[in-house]
Amino acid sequence: MPLYLFNPVTESPNHSQSPISTALSQQELAQLAADIKLWARELGFQDAGITDINLGEHEQHLTNWLARDFHGEMDYMTSHGNMRSRPEELVPGTLRIISVRMDYLPGDTQTVRILQQPEKAYISRYSLGRDYHKLIRKRITQLGKRIEDKVGKFGYRAFVDSAPVLEKALAEKAGLGWIGKNTLLLNNKAGSWFFLGELFTDLPLPIDEPQQTSHCGSCFACAEICPTDAIVGPHQLDARRCISYLTIELKGAIPEEFRKPIGNRVFGCDDCQIICPWNKFAKNTCETDFLPRHKLDSTDLADLFLWTEEEFLDRTAGSPIRRTGFEGWLRNLAVGLGNAPTNDKVISALQARLDYPSEIVQEHVRWALEQHK
């Protein structure tokens, strides 16, 4: 699973205050809330819940996390003041937030087997297909339009991991699960292989009750399995050590202490999900857009390393992998090749990039070749 920490982008608001928010009776609002959950499922979401905008406890957790510099180079985590934990500052007039989730795990992607084949590239399961942002935002916007068809003009705005929103906190409050010790949202009927999205609204809908307790119990398998010891305590992730951060968010050289533990993970990491007992309840996705493209779920590191930049751009069009850029892609693959079994194919691929016009790539290629001496 991704860190779910992405640079904010501008999204078009559809927020026009109207008397609708006060014209509906409590009974009508309750029926509307039930309809919203039905419509969400019809639009392909597996679950939906409604919460208020009070995130005080989660704001303090975020403040403490930032104070420990656990965000690393993700400066956008600090660039919006308290807007991330105060939805009404992001979208004035917001009273409620409809939180939705959508399963993304492709079936038969041999998740564990690929990790055990060090010559193969492991790519986080969420990024094997098309970028989820547009698909989910479109569906959430359609949900807003269905509500509008029912009640008339009202204020709403859709978000999908692309603006200062504490989506896991909102989903937890909306009853979609609990934030586990690995800092991901867990659901006792669906595990954690799902995306989240939100519809901010000015409708005073009845809110859902959150689950009262975490169901992680004494289990701390996620921390024990983490290759880089990024989970430094229950619900405490030092992103600077997280492979998802190192292979996606970090733009410079990957610190040498993490290169061996990264293994063959070249874009993100799913270890803390793979080991989580609750993921035995995870369902495979029904969305064809999330299915693997270009055999990215089973390709050799050396083959990917020899892609030209044009091939990279073509084969990652509409993919989350574009986020790392071609230079970052080569950097990550070089690390993977340094950890791969020594053979002519691996050595030949690395030597082909020794003079690549990027000091970062060259540094990682030289390191990789040193591992095969």
TrEMBL record:
Q: What reaction does this enzyme carry out catalytically? A: epoxyqueuosine(34) in tRNA + AH2 = queuosine(34) in tRNA + A + H2O
This protein is called Epoxyqueuosine reductase
Q: Which UniProt keywords apply?
A: 4Fe-4S, Cobalamin, Cobalt, Cytoplasm, Iron, Iron-sulfur, Metal-binding, Oxidoreductase, Queuosine biosynthesis, tRNA processing
Recorded GO cellular component terms are: cytoplasm
The role this protein plays is: Catalyzes the conversion of epoxyqueuosine (oQ) to queuosine (Q), which is a hypermodified base found in the wobble positions of tRNA(Asp), tRNA(Asn), tRNA(His) and tRNA(Tyr).
The entry's tRNA-binding residues are 251
Q: Mainly localized where?
A: cytoplasm
What Pfam families does the entry give? Fer4_16, QueG_DUF1730
**Where in or outside the cell?**
Cytoplasm
In terms of PANTHER family, this protein maps to:
EPOXYQUEUOSINE REDUCTASE
